[in-house]
Every structure is written in structure tokens, then in C-alpha cells.
Amino acid sequence: MTQPPRQFADEAPTVQFAQVGGPAAPGGPGGFGPAVPDGPEPAPDRGRKRILLAGGITAAVLVAIGGAAAYGYAGEVPRGTTVLGIALGAKSKADAAAVLRAGLSGQAERLESPLPVRLGERVVEIKPADVGLAIDVDATVAAAADSGGGPFSRVFGSRAVAPVVAVDVEKADDVLRAALGKDAQAMTMPAVTFSGTTPKAVHPKPGMGLDAEKSAQALREGWLGIRPVPVPLVEVHPATTADEVDKLVAELARPAVAAPVTVTTERGDVTVPPAAIAKSLVLTADKTGKINPRVDEKKLRAALATPLAEVEVAAKDATMALKAGKPAVVPGVDGHRLDTAALSKDLLAVLPKADARTLAGTMTTAKPKVTEEDVAKLGVKEKVSTFTTNFPGGLTSARSQNIVLVSKETKGAFVMPGATFSLNTHTGERSYPQGYKDAPTIVGGKLVPGAGGGVSQFVTTLFNATYYAGLEDVEHKPHSYYFSRYPAVIESTIYPPHLDFRFRNNTPYGVLIDTSYTSSSITVSIWSTKIYDSVKTEWGPRRNITQPQTRYLEPGPSCIATGGLPGFSQDAWRIFRKDGKETKREKFSWTYQAEPRFICGKAPA
Question: Where do the TM regions start and end (predicted)?
């Protein structure tokens, strides 16, 4: 007799055949039926019929079992399997994944809605997408395919398979920590700080907060179930212990600042003093409370500014200059720079030592940030604007010499597209060591001698040149009193550090500033690519005119007499024209005070 398939052997029904109306078939132990008493031997044909009948029934049972098996094992996912109510049974894994994705899209409102989360005593809402909560379709289908039992359960059973939930552990930790906010009891993070060159230990203390993995697991388990999802608060300990902090002080921090470190280079030696080491040695913990000692390169470089100046040469960017009256590219020049990034790492090996505190530094070539090719593409090809103002006194007066000096310092300044030019930054301090002389300047409403007096005339000239070039005004301030040598409203003073003159190159082209002077005038020209047909000014009428008063000052070297000037308010409009049309206008307004008539002497009785 043919046996049932092996995998079904335990589940195949037991079939017994009993004799109906006639002698029993051979039975007893090992037979198909029960044992019967001996009797007349049946005719041969009747015995064969019984055998055939028994074989036919057995075959039918086996066919039924095989059919049930084929039905139950159709597809890779067992029949009757659902995930969140979505039927996946009797499908291949690929088809089941497609059906599950389609079904989940229909539940988007549920899956994307804010999730209430309990953090200690607080309940907050988070967005599932913000923490990476999602159903892993492929993993869910794989779990569903493995969920079936034997043939009977695969044919007649039904099962709801829980989805496999994914979450971004790091994102979830960040979002939950932000939500917890001040309710967390922060750990006292370990550290070693410096007061001058004296190290001080900060010992760690535990706090109450979140464990990233436990939080993620709570979100996985609770997202599609209980509301609000309870996320546990746990006692958190910094990764670095108090003993380890004390060890850092004894073995690294204290010896690090006990003596200087000498860095040898091909251009000379650089001494790293203990103060620079204390400022750049970082012994603070990360968010887990672990201290990873490092030397901060930026802090080290800042602390070594003076020693580095002895061995380093800054690279010079390529720029533009006028040669024979035409713009020409000036090549950049390489510089020399100590590799402080490598030095920062090498120092850590030397700092714990009491002696042999010398290491070799590496000098690198510092390349210009702006190359000749960069400059050549910037379209500096023509004079866009020029402006001239006149001054009295010739080149022998201190005021005129100040104007000439600042013009020389500004000549050739090159402003990249999008960059802002600051006159105070470009020239630096304008004082006696730089060659500036005492000349009248307005301080406290009166003229007094001051270093750099007269520079405002150059500022006004530069402002007008950039103004008529159409460049963006960032900072300027007209004088308190009106002087007829300047255009009303469209002029500017300067008084570092409180007042500066700044403009922004709001064009796609480079801007080259050129200056020139005579014995009685100063001229500033802007070279670039012309954008506007013209930039002109229209002035409104003067209004609110006030007359000067007479004031008497104590005679002496600091007293400068004046004839007095009227005050007034006035508006001016900068008008831009392009392609024959006005494209823009900007309004400038200013109110001048009446300059008193200052007399050096006592007032009449």
C-alpha cells in the first residue's frame, strides 16, 4: 500500500475497514481489520474485491490529503494571514509586500497622526516621521510567511500578524530629550577646567533622563497600541567616573601646563607656553559623559598668534591693478603656514611628559584663496564711475596730508562679488603711528584738533564714487554740519570705532577702487562692468532752515573759530536708469544742525 507523504504522516486520519455482511477479511495484528474466528475460506474473487475496495478508499483519502496540502500551501504566506486587517494569505512575498504597502497608504492618517507620549509626569505629542517610526514592510511580510503551522492550520486557520516596527534611535532620542526639556534631571558632566594654568576637576553626578535604546523599544511596542506610550525615565550616569577625572588631572592636565613645549620648524622654533596649552587643551565630556582629550586647533592658533608670526607668511590673493591705465590681473603669492592641525594631535603625546617636550612641526605651503583665473573671470574692464572733491590749503597742510595718506591706503582695494568693503577694516587704525596728523575734526559739536582730521573728505569722495556706480550702501552718516565742498545729503563722515563707511558689491563683477590726488583735489574711481545706463541724483528743496547762534570758547590751541552755518533738512533720490527706463529710485534724507559761530574769547559783559 502506498504510504502518505512523510511530512503529513502525523496528521493523516486513521482509516479502519470493517467487514459488512460476510466473512471478515484477514485481520488481527498486522491486518486491516479486527481478528475473526476461523471459517470457510472465501472465494478468491470476493477476496480480491475486498482488497480493491480497501485500496480505493485509501487512495481517495490520500488524494484528499494531498489536495488539502496543496490548498494550504498555496503562496508563501499562509492562508488566513492578516496584518492590521490587511489580508496577505496565499500570496507570494513580493505580492504580499505590494498589497501591504497599498493597504498602509490607506491608513496614512492613522499612521502619521501625532503620537502622545508619557515622559514622567508630562504627556507630549511627537510626529512619527520625526523619530523614524514606520512599518518595515519587508520584515513584516517575512514574519507573516513564517507564521503558519502544519497543513491543518494552514488550511483552516487564521492569524493576525503584528507588524514589524522600525524607529530611528538617534532621532527619537533627540526628539524625546527636547520634549523632556527641563523635566530631566541633568547629569553633572565630568570635566577638567583651567583657571589660568591651574587645572580643576569637575566630578560627575548621575541624573534622571532617557536611555536611547529603551526609549526606542517603548515607541516600537506602543506606537500602534496603548495611548499615551509610556517612555521610561532612567537614572543616567556619565561614562567617565570621578576616579577617571582625578587620573586625568594627575596624568595629563597638571603635567601639560608644567612647562612650555618647543616646536621646531625649518623657518625657526615656536614656543607653546603653558598659557596657550591651558587655553587649547579640551577636557570636557560628550553627551554620554565621556572625556576624550583633544587640543582645539583654532584656540591653539589664536593663542600662538604672536609666535606664529615669526615663522608664517600669509598668502596673497590674486587681485586687479591698473597698469598703463588699464585693469590687469596681479598674480597671487604663496605663503608659509605651520600645520597646526597636525600639531594639535602631536601635542597630546608630549603634554604628559615632564621632559623631552620638543616636537617637530611641519610647514606647509599656503595657497591663495583667489587665483588669477578667478580674478580674470570677474569682468573688471571699464571705469564705471568717478568722483572728485576739492580741498584748500595745498599739500603742506596736515588735513591735506591725511586725505592723501588714506587715499594711498585705499588705492587698489579689490572687492569680490557679494563682499562688503569696510574702510575702517581696510586701513586699520588711523592714528599718529600710522602717519596721521592733527587736523580739525568735529567732536561734541565743535571743531577740535584730532588725528586723521580731514579723512571725512576722502570718505565722502569714496561714498559718491560707489553711489554713482550703483553699489549698495551699507553704512554711512552725513556730517552734523553742512560744508559747501560736499554735495548735500550725499556725503559721509567717519569716526572709528563708532562710525564706519561700508558698501556691498551687489553685482556679479569684481570692483576695483582707484584713487588719485592733486594739490587741491582728491578723486576716487570705480572699475568694474557697467550695469546701469546712468545713476543720478535729484534733490528736494531745503526746509526747516535754522540760523546759527554765537558761542564763546576758551582761547587756546584747541579752540577753532568758525563763521557759523545755517541748518536745514533735505531729501535726495538716487535714480537708476537701464535700457532707457527708470528702474529704481532710493531716498536719502538728512537734517543738518546749524553750526554755531564759535568765537575764541570771553563773552561780552
Answer: 51-74
Residue range of the domain that includes 266: 247-375
**Average pLDDT, 10 consecutive residues per value, the chain (605 residues):** 40 35 40 43 54 54 49 75 93 95 92 93 92 95 80 68 95 92 81 97 91 94 90 90 96 97 96 97 93 97 95 95 94 96 96 95 95 95 96 88 94 96 91 79 63 84 98 96 92 89 97 96 97 97 92 80 87 97 96 88 83
Residues 344 and 389 placed together within one structural domain of the fold: no
Residues in CB range of 305: below 8 A, 6 or more apart: none
Residues 359 and 418 in one domain: no
DSSP 130: G
Q: Using N-to-C axis directions, what is the helix angle for 455-468 and 398-410, rounded to 10°?
A: 40
Q: Which of 375, 392, 417 is the last residue of a domain?
A: 375
State the cell numbers at 130.
Answer: 520625526
Check residue 129 and give its pLDDT. 95
| Residue 579 forms part of a structural domain | yes
Domain identity same for 518 and 413: yes
Same domain assignment for residues 471 and 446: yes
**C-alpha distance across the termini of the chain, in Å:** 148
Q: The domain that contains 254 carries what CATH number?
A: 3.10.20
The dihedral region occupied by 109, where left means phi > 0, alpha psi between -120 and 50, and beta the remainder, is: alpha
- Name the DSSP class of 138: H
Phi, psi for 107 (deg, rounded to 5): -105, 20
Beta bridge partners, 330, equal 319
Handedness of CA 267, 269, 274, 275 (dihedral sign): negative
Question: Are the C-beta atoms of 463 and 490 separated by less than 8 Å?
Answer: yes
Task: Give the pLDDT of residue 24.
Answer: 41
492, 460 Cβ separation under 8 angstroms: yes
Domain membership flag for residue 95: no
Peptide bond into 541 cis (omega under 30): no
With a threshold of 0.85, does the pTM exceed it? no
Task: Look at residue 59 in the predicted model and tell me its pLDDT.
Answer: 52
| Same domain? 292 vs 404 | no
User: Are residues 397 and 513 located together in one domain of the fold?
Assistant: yes
CA distance 90 to 93: 9
Structural domain total, the chain:
3
Q: Are 543 and 570 in contact (CB under 8 A)?
A: yes
How big is the chain, counted in residues? 605
Instruction: Specify the 3-state DSSP secondary structure of 397.
Output: coil
Are 427 and 329 found together in one domain? no
Spatial distance between the Cα atoms of 404 and 522, rounded to a whole number of angstroms: 8
Helix (H) or strand (E) holding 124: strand 122-126
Assess whether 363 and 341 both reside in one domain.
yes
Pairing, β 191-195 against β 207-209: unpaired
Dihedral angle of Cα 91, 93, 95, 98, to the nearest 10 degrees: 130
Assess whether the previous peptide bond of 497 is cis (omega < 30° from 0): yes
Q: Where are the beta strands (DSSP E) in 318-475?
A: 319-323, 326-330, 335-338, 358-360, 363-366, 382-390, 414-415, 420-422, 438-443, 446-451, 472-475
Domain end, chosen from 340, 375, 410, is at 375
What pLDDT score was predicted for residue 12?
36
Q: Residue 478: its pLDDT value, please?
A: 96
DSSP run (H or E) holding 551:
strand 550-553
For residue 461, which of 407, 524, 415, 537 has the smallest C-alpha distance?
A: 524
